[in-house]
Amino acid sequence: MADEASLFQDISDAVVAMDEERVVDLVRAVIEKKIDVYEAIEKGLSHGMERAGQLFEEEEYFVPELLICSDAMYAGLDLLRPYLKRSDEGSKHKVVIGVIEGDTHDIGKNLVKIMLETAGFELHDLGRDVPAPRFVEKAREVDADIIAISTLMTTTMDGMAEVIRLLREANIRDRLKVIVGGGPVSQGFADRIGANGYAANAGAAVKLARRLLDGETVHAG
Amino acid sequence: MLDKMSPLGRLDAYGKGENIDRLPCVPIVGNTAARIIGVKVSELRNNGELLAEAQVEAYRLFGYDTIRIFTDLYVQAEAMGARVVKPSDETAYLDAPAITDASQIERLRPADPAHDGCLPAHLAATRIAVREVGLEVPVTTALTCPFTNASFLIGTENLIRFMYKDPAAVHKLCEVSLQTNVAFAGAIMEAGAAPSLTDPMSSSTVVSPAKFREFSLPYLARLITHLHSAGKKVTLHICGKTDRIWDYMVEAGADCISIDNQIDLGQACVKVGGRVRLMGNVAPSEVILQGTPDDVRTAVRTCVRKAWRSPKGYVVASGCSLPTETPFSNIHAMMDAVREIGFPVTEEKLREGS
Prior knowledge:
The complex is a heterodimer of chains A (about 220) and B (about 350). By secondary structure, chain A is an alpha/beta fold. Chain A contains nine helices and five strands; from the N terminus they run H-H-H-H-E-H-E-H-E-H-E-H-E-H. Chain B has a single domain, classed as Alpha-Beta Barrel (TIM Barrel), CATH 3.20.20. In chain B, helix 4 (about 50-60) packs across helix 6 (about 120-135), helix 7 (about 145-155) crosses helix 9 (about 165-190) and helix 14 packs across helix 15. The relative contact order of chain B is 0.13.
């Protein structure tokens, strides 16, 4: 047990250290030793990514560091994927995410996606420049728990309000949560358009998503 | 309310510490200029005459203190092979970078401002604006700086991954971007204007101060040295979080740093106000786009209160380019607020009507 705990800690540290090769080596050891892969993800890979997210919030890490950490995390995850049981996929909370129409800046969205995925959410990424009705369609199709909309541009913020309007029209507004973020967006704006929440950055988005879903446990993988 | 001084006269006197009628003020008008002359945003981009007309008419309507020929951040990257989408009535955006991996870097050539992309149109607009109003107001032309331009050449995610995985590639991309900058800046100065530097990707919202220093600062410094050797004063705009790189922006050689509303202007005065002029800080989105004229007035007074004593001076300005649909009434309100405060600024004037 002590061995496993220190292995998980090493994986977490290697993710934070942006050391992809070391992550891969350590994850191979997990597989060889037949250690519980879910635990390795939760206490190793995800744990490291959460710490990276925390450093990002504290402005110790910036966008490049978070991306390189996520590269290391995904390299480990890819190795473990074949050992995950399919039936577990269904139990995850679903998030439809995208950058609203008119905006093609998707780095912020990609970071939020990475952090949510790391935290155990199932992500449906619509990409950038996404028309408002597409968010609603996709949310219906996958029975999403959360719609996450991002923009970096002031000119496209109305599209966020439009998504909420369309959800109301379709009578499914109460079935899911809408969270918004991006440069020009503020808590005030989120309140005004009737979103459930605003997150200032990718780390905060995870906390917000968890809080909105009433702290229901979402397990990693 | 009419101004007593011309922008050039005002800026000159302000720089010498002489009396002026009001603080300089620059609501950074971008594609809102299309709305002034009733054309579509996309019509301006590659039409020098129309772009000049839009920007000159916007200046004449509002009476602000610097004209900036600008349509979007991508004109140099496009001239180097990046693909840009031009929606009919919105600001252009990057569709695909010029190259997709580091092996293609050697293919990139510095742009020729006389021939490539819409650079000739931007230069034509510059010449026309200088001819029309250059004797009364400074005319500048927007120039996207090396690090940001590099991000458009290979894609932002690639560029920032390379900062860790292939630093030499980042330097090559910045170098070829700098060469384009120098050529474009030369042509802008030949047209009688000054380049207006903008470098959003250098913001600490994106990269750390350490990475800024390693990858962006050297090229900015070389660019600014080049502009200084031609006798130009340089304004450097970086939006987002910048408090941890103000010292570097000064080190790069900027004479004026233009900063947005995510930082504390008062702190900027204390930290770097003795070395450079400050500009900006009026919130473009929350206040000037979405607020009322009264909100704008209040915001202007707040900024002036914080910064008017800054030793090297303060230019009241929006924190970033104004969104296209910014109401004219709010731009007028911004100018009027500065006129009402007048000069010298007094606490009494700042309280009036607030």
